[in-house]
Amino acid sequence: MAQLSVVLDCSASMGAWGKYDISKLCLRRVIPIARKFGMEAALFAWRTDVVPAQKLSEFLPDGTSEGAALVAFLEESEGAVLLLSDGLWQDDAQVLRHAAEGRALAVVTYGADRNLSRPEELATCGCWPVEDLVAAVQRLAGATADGEAAS
After folding, report:
1. At what angle do helices 19-36 and 133-146 cross, to 10 degrees?
2. Whole-number mean pLDDT of the chain?
C-alpha cells in the first residue's frame, strides 16, 4: 500500500473562523478516503516540528508553523504528502518550493481568511479547497502509482 503523510498546520491561525472544527472533520475522513484509493495514511502535526500525532488533542492550534520544520519533513518523507492548512505561514516560499520538488504534494486549504497564493506556489499535485479533499487524495494516489510528482 502506498504511504500518505497527512500534515495538519497547527498554528494559532488554525483556531480561528471555525478552522479547527474543519480540521477535525478532515482528520476523521482522510484515513478511510486514503484506504479507498489504496493508500495508508499517517497523521502529523506541524508547528515548530512535524511530529506524528494520533489524538485530536495533539492537533490543538497554538503558536506558529515553521517552514524549516516542513522543509525537513519533506526532505525525509517518502510517499505522498497532503498538507491541510489555511496557507497563512510566513516562511520563504522559494525554500518551501525547493523542498517540495520531486514530491507528490497536495495542499488543501480552508478558512475565510485563507491565503491561496502560498499553497499554490508549493503544491506539486495541486492546491484544493477543502470540499475537494477526496479529489486531492485521489490525485496523490494517481501520482504515487504513476511515479509522478508534478501534474
Report:
1. 40
2. 84
Domains of the chain: 2-146 (3.40.50.410)
Q: CA-CA distances (angstroms) from residue 52 to 13, 129, 148?
A: 20, 24, 25
Return the C-alpha cell found at 50. 512535524
Is residue 71 a contact partner of residue 99, using CB atoms and an 8 Å limit? yes
List b or e across 66-75, with b for residues whose CB sees 16 or more CB atoms inside 10 angstroms.
bbebbbebbe
Give the single-character DSSP code of 79.
S
- Counting beta carbons within 10 angstroms of the beta carbon of residue 134, is it exposed (0 to 12), middle (13 to 18) or buried (19 or more)? middle
- For residues 105 and 33, give the distance between their C-alpha atoms in angstroms, rounded to a whole number: 16
What is the rounded distance in angstroms from the CA atom of residue 31 to the CA atom of residue 133?
Answer: 11
Q: What tens digit of pLDDT does each residue of 34-83 get?
A: 999 999 999 999 999 999 998 878 889 998 888 888 888 988 988 999 99
Q: Which three cell numbers stand for residue 84?
A: 491541510
Of the pLDDT bands very low, low, confident and very high (cuts 50, 70, 90), residue 150 is very low
Cα 129 versus chain centre, distance: 12
